[in-house]
Specification:
Order of helices and strands: HHEHEEHEHEEHHEEHHEHEE
Number of helices: 10
Shape: elongated
Strand order of the largest sheet: 9-7-8-10-11
Distance between the termini: 45 Å
Number of strands: 11
Structural class: alpha+beta
Helix content: 25-40%
Mean pLDDT: 91
Length: 262
């Protein structure tokens, strides 16, 4: 089977098995995938199940997974492969976005298996220590999907995001790229480790000396960066995630960004 017929996350998983992709690429592909199949029981609320009625696949009348396990599939072919091997999958919701799915992983689970019964290079697994990482990557992708929006809804999403990354130099000041993106002195900020790595890859060994990577929530940066004469953020300026520019001058009331209506 050629890779052109495989779903994007499976292609990345295969690349990872061949050492052509890293773990961050895998997590970005899994969290950004919008074609997941997951047990309908994962969507416990009645209103959630109602929304899924048009995208439910019946693999059988009963779901029987090993105790403490959650089985997820990147595509219909992977699920059918498991069914053919004897798995009792029951009802599965289809076309589920990773941004929604990874936030529903029960921390009491012993393991989450991706594409069980598929070839090893097309599978993945999450153990309890990595559930929070999966959720954070879902938050990363969800935030990046809002980059095309403007105004307070985008600013509010950024303010609530808990995993922004940035670099501090030997002087203790946040690293900036002056006169870029229409700003005088913007901080270079990243939504995820792969984006921070892309920035570092552009620096010389000498430029990297003394740089320290740090993390903070969006609200902290929005409030604190102007104290260093920083007028905005260049977010993911060098990929691989989507990029955008945040102008602090466009935020009229910082405290209003916690408004839950956004």
């Amino acid at each position: 089977m050629g890779t052109e017929s495989l779903s994007e996350p499976v292609r990345v998983l295969i690349a990872y098995s061949q050492k052509r992709a890293g773990a961050n690429e895998v997590m970005r592909a899994l969290a950004g995938h919008k074609g997941w199949l997951a047990p309908v029981t994962l969507f416990a609320q009645a209103e959630e199940q109602h929304l899924l009625l048009d995208s439910v696949v019946m693999f059988g009348t009963e779901t029987r997974l090993p105790p403490g396990e959650l089985w997820l599939f990147t595509d219909r072919a992977a699920a059918e492969r498991a069914q053919a091997a004897g798995a009792m999958l029951g009802l599965y919701a289809a076309k589920v976005a990773g941004t929604e799915l990874f936030g529903k992983i029960d921390p009491r689970l012993q393991i989450v298996r991706v594409n069980p019964y598929s070839p090893n290079e097309q599978g993945w697994q999450f153990l309890p220590g990595s559930y929070e990482l999966a959720q954070l990557w879902a938050e990363v992708v969800a935030l990046e999907e809002k980059f095309e929006e403007s105004g307070d809804p985008f600013y509010a999403a950024l303010a609530r995001f808990r995993g922004l990354l940035f670099f501090v130099g030997p002087s203790g000041y946040v690293i900036t790229l002056p006169n870029q993106g229409g700003l005088k002195n913007p901080a270079v900020v990243f939504t995820a480790p792969d984006c921070a790595d892309a920035f570092m890859a552009r620096l010389t060994d000498e430029q990297r000396q003394g740089l320290e990577r740090r993390g903070a929530d969006g609200m902290t940066l929005i409030k604190r960066l102007p104290e260093q004469q920083i007028d905005g953020m260049l977010i993911n300026a060098f990929g691989p995630g989507p990029s955008t520019v945040l102008f602090f001058g466009e935020i009229e009331d910082v405290n209003s960004l916690y408004d839950e209506s956004y």
